[in-house]
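Entry:
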Amino acid sequence: MVVAGYLVELLFTPLHLVPQTRDATVTTASISWNYTTWLNIVFLLVAAALFLRFVRTGGLPRLRMMGGDPQSPQAESAQAMENKPTTPTAYRTSTTRESTPNPATRCRGRKSRPTA
């Protein structure tokens, strides 16, 4: 960056592109209440409302449940207990589907083209 600055100065000075007079005014920075301040306050209130909704609807227990090391033995045993079926009906297979598909209806019910 410094080398690029020097190269620009060396290029602009012989071409007389560097201004001779400087009319820049320097102002001191101060804290002011402008539109960005009010937008920040509004969005802080929105974030607080969303956080309160998260806490009140049970988000913290769900967040704790999702946390933890997935490789730990406690996590594996807890996951195994959650996936364990409690009733014998969980082992039944569905009998509503056809065991053999109809060859005339492929691709979501559209009839297939006859093959020669």
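The longest helix spans residues 35-56.
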